[in-house]
Amino acid sequence: MIDQFKAYINRYNLIAKGDKLVLALSGGIDSMVLADLLLKAKVEFVAAHCNFHLRGHESDGDDWFVRKFAENRGIQCFVKHFETEKYAAKYGISIEMAARDLRYAWFEQLRQQLGYGKIAVAHHADDQAETFFINLLRGAGLNGLKGMKPQNGVIIRPLLWASREQIRKYAVENHIVWREDHTNVESVYLRNRIRNQLLPVFDELQPKARQGLYKSLEHLAAENELYRMLLKEKLAQIVERDGEIQRLPYSAISPSAVGPSTLRGASGTAGSGTLAFTFQLLFEWLRQYGFSTDQCHFIYDAIRTGIGNQYFSPTHCVVIGRDELQLSEIKEKTDDEIQIEIGEEETFSPVHLQFSKLERTADFIINKSSDVAQLDFDKLRFPLTLRHWRHADRFHPLGMKGSKLLSDFFVDQKFTEYQKQNVWLLVSADGEILWVVGYRIDDRFKIVNDTKTVFECRLGRH
């Protein structure tokens, strides 16, 4: 097995000469076999063990076991304790997901702290099979069905070629001691149900059924690499970049713009294959920015009919335009509203404002620049705030008697979606919009003949 181990490492260039690893060592059979193989291959590594405190005394037993093993072998060992259940409850995620997030974040922190190159984990071929069925049941596409990579960034999986049976045989023959996790035989989690119930039936279908699945996963991985390469080229051709905004013209994903004749129906019109193809382009573009499959379906269906609709991922915003989709990054904001103080120069991203209180004298000059707002001080209610626009916001643009939806004002001014999302509003304590900063003040708060005191705001653009 050591020869197969070295051959796999060389095939995928997982460990170069002089590489130092952080080994995720749980104490289970897989990671203990990986530790033994790394020692025999003379690879330098430290052990990293996570105590998730999910199995009472068993978790503490694993902790002690790993420490003792490392001590006996002269391996530096790091142990981290986690309040996994509290973390899962706080973020509304499963225990499995919480444990995964916590361990990989800590492994990476430890790797950087030590200055090591890679993190080794003991995933094997049966883990691949289980992951395939999990993703299949969840409706995954090619990217999900292809399984795990031998290397993903700094994470390496040197045992991905070996089956659970091979690993167990090696452990027994080489007198390797390990800790059994009793939860592995419980069919509580989906992965365990696949392992304990589905795969045994799969093995009964025909001889070497599992080996056939492993080979299919290799083919899927290779095909996915080719697909990703071609997709990257295609998106580079159709997605336009305008500063911080990405634009996808509808013409680029219309049925007439894509497809070979093989994707068209018998009548020569776009068939369901073409529509699926155009949606896939949209999906692959947006998924990399955190948009879900359902969101992409909503966006696709709203093209040309839902002009102005906005859809948000954790990091980005897509807006349905008249002729294109517009994607921009959501700028991180500490607060939606920022309180300001009169007479002090304050800096707010992305604006720099200076506020002054001036007496209205006979020779007072009214500044008509859009970068200056001169307001009737006595009509204002303090404290004032700066905030971004919200749906249903209204104000009275200077020169108009009635009110206007701010969204309509944006249309009149030909605002881009990026401008709409990043413009600031100066708002009074009672919620009245005083100034669309850098564009227009509210007519109700303008200077009039009997104004005695002027509140002046000056904008300095970055």
Describe the secondary-structure layout.
Blueprint: H1 2-11, E1 20-24, H2 29-40, E2 44-51, H3 57-73, E3 77-81, H4 84-91, H5 95-114, E4 118-120, H6 125-137, H7 142-145, E5 151-152, E6 155-156, H8 164-173, H9 190-205, H10 209-238, E7 240-242, E8 245-249, H11 272-287, H12 293-302, E9 310-312, E10 316-320, E11 324-329, E12 337-339, E13 346-348, E14 351-359, E15 372-376, E16 385-388, E17 394-395, E18 404-405, H13 406-412, H14 417-422, E19 424-427, E20 433-436, E21 440-441, E22 453-461
Parallel strand pairs: 1-2, 1-4, 2-3, 4-6
Antiparallel strand pairs: 5-6, 7-8, 8-11, 9-10, 10-11, 12-16, 13-14, 14-22, 15-22, 16-19, 17-18, 19-20, 20-21
Quick structural gist:
With 462 residues, this protein is α+β, with helices and mostly antiparallel strands.
Report on this model:
Helix content is 39%, strand content 20%. With 462 residues, it is an alpha+beta fold. It folds into 3 domains: 221 residues, Rossmann fold (3-Layer(aba) Sandwich); 91 residues, no CATH class; 125 residues, Phenylalanyl-trna Synthetase, Chain B, domain 3 (Phenylalanyl-tRNA Synthetase, Chain B, domain 3, 3-Layer(bba) Sandwich). It is elongated and about 100 Å long. About 5% of the residues have low confidence.
